[in-house]
Amino acid sequence: MINQDFITFGPVHLEVRDVERTAHFWQELAGLERRATDGGLIEDGTKDATLLVLHGGARTSYKQGHSGLYHLAIHAPNARDFARMLKRFIDLDYPIAPTDHTFSKAIYLDDPDGIKIEFTLETPERFRGVRPVGNRLAFIGADGVERPGAYALDLEKVFDAYEPGSEREPAADGTKIGHIHLYVGNLDQSHEFYRSLGMQSARYWPPMQVADLGAGGPFKHRIAINTWQGINAPPAPIGTARMRHFEMQVTTSEHLQAALMANPHAVDSDNCYELIDPAGIKLRIAKTTTMGI
């Protein structure tokens, strides 16, 4: 398992104002499929995997000023499917912000409730590292050129991989929840918490109040945290559109037991262990492991 991620993400659970409207958004805009409807819940994803579970209950749209979800990121399995996503958004004339982070290519947008979403293509092969420049970080490409952490994405290069007609295809197998970016109230505490789950610190930069953590693979941005909604920002209140919780799965029982030993207050539920991070964000770790050992 050298250079492979030992933690992966299951579904992200969102609380929204109108479940049917949000499900239609994901199906029409992103090409996700409706996998199940159970009471007031709708599961959206690919043919083989649920990526999102939509819950009703929100009375207002997403609110700033709280800890919780900054954005969830759906990762395309390859450049062709990333180009397919981009073409679909453009054809539907949906507001997007295409952005290059060097280690990834990203398309940012909001759902109908203002919950932020990123569609991502992992490109760690283009990334060499970072260098402090004042109180910010310059990103160094594999070509040796220093660039900002975020700059305009070259759409023409993205469309080099576009296959005409592919934009109407459903999301491809291998499309996944690839990273989750969180607003937290205390950078140090949240950084240490996710390290206690086995995540590996990749970038920790208090001057910008940001940190990135990887999970063993070449892409070092699986969990990202920042305090940009304020130090000690309270959790997003019930009744607002928000993330209820997210799910994780580890590769082996050894990884699972290490995470549980570091977090003895985890609640043993039916098929998972439930935890709350220092920012009040809920997560669940599956009892089953991806390798079955």
Helix/strand/pairing category: alpha+beta
Radius of gyration: 18 Å
Q: Record the strand order, biggest sheet.
A: 12-6-7-8-5-13-16-15-14
Q: On the 0-100 scale, what is the average pLDDT?
A: 96
Stretches where pLDDT is under 50 for at least 5 consecutive residues are: none
As for the number of domains, it is: 1
CATH class: Alpha Beta
Cα(first) to Cα(last) distance is 13 Å
Helix percent reads 10-25%
CATH superfamily: 2,3-Dihydroxybiphenyl 1,2-Dioxygenase, domain 1
Could you please say which CATH topology applies here? 2,3-Dihydroxybiphenyl 1,2-Dioxygenase, domain 1
Number of strands: 20
CATH architecture: Roll
How many separate helices? 5
Helix-strand pattern, N to C?
EHEEEEHEEEEEEEHEHEEEEHEEE
Layout: helices, strands, pairs:
Blueprint: E1 7-15, H1 19-30, E2 33-38, E3 41-45, E4 50-55, E5 68-75, H2 79-91, E6 97-100, E7 104-110, E8 116-122, E9 127-133, E10 136-141, E11 146-147, E12 151-152, H3 155-158, E13 176-183, H4 187-196, E14 200-205, E15 210-214, E16 223-226, E17 242-250, H5 253-262, E18 267-268, E19 272-276, E20 282-286
Parallel strand pairs: 1-4, 5-8, 13-16, 17-20
Antiparallel strand pairs: 1-17, 2-3, 3-4, 5-13, 6-7, 6-12, 7-8, 9-10, 10-11, 14-15, 15-16, 18-19, 19-20
